[in-house]
Every structure is written in C-alpha cells, then in structure tokens.
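Exercise 7b. Backbone tokens:
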C-alpha cells in the first residue's frame, strides 16, 4: 500500500498481492473542467464508473474560487496507461500526480 497527500487531500493506492489495484489522481484547474473531464474520461477509456471529483482548497487562499479539482480514477486491474492519462489531463490544463 502506498499512501500520500495531494495538497490537503489524502489518497491511498492499494495493491493486491499481484500489484493489480491502483488509483490515479488527475489535478484540474476548476470544477467545470473536472466535471467535463470525468464524463469524457469514462467515454474515452470505457471506465465502468465515473471518477470521483474532489475539491482541493489551496493552502493560504481565502477565496473560495481558489481551488484545484481532483479526479480520483480507479484502476482496479492496472490497465490504464499513465502517459495517456498525462495527455488527457493536459487537454484540460491539468496534470496527473505521481505517487
């Protein structure tokens, strides 16, 4: 099991004994982009469920608009290509967090 934080949000990447369970974290600039990207990701990659959307407030920011939005993408069988996720996030002015 690998755990960590993306901003103030904790995440856990759990792996079964054969190393098959993974979660990817995509960071996007705003809620609209996160919601649209979540739908597009399901369509593009044929995901069985839509990624979880999480709001991440930026440290020290008072404005409620100052936040990043995270897509938590379940990859139970470790089938998703990290480079493809990097490219996808970049299309939405975002990036994929490295564990």
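Sequence design result:
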């Amino acid at each position: 099991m690998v755990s960590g934080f993306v901003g103030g949000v904790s995440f856990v990447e759990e792996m079964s004994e054969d190393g098959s369970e993974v979660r990817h974290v995509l960071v996007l600039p705003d809620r609209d982009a996160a919601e649209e990207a979540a739908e597009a990701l399901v369509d593009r990659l044929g995901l069985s469920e839509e990624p979880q959307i999480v709001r991440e407030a930026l440290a020290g920011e008072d404005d409620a608009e100052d936040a990043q939005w995270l897509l938590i993408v379940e990859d139970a069988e470790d089938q998703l290509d990290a480079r493809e996720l990097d490219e996808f996030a970049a299309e939405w002015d975002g990036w994929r967090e490295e564990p």
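Instructor comment: The radius of gyration is 13 Å. The chain has one domain: 2-97.
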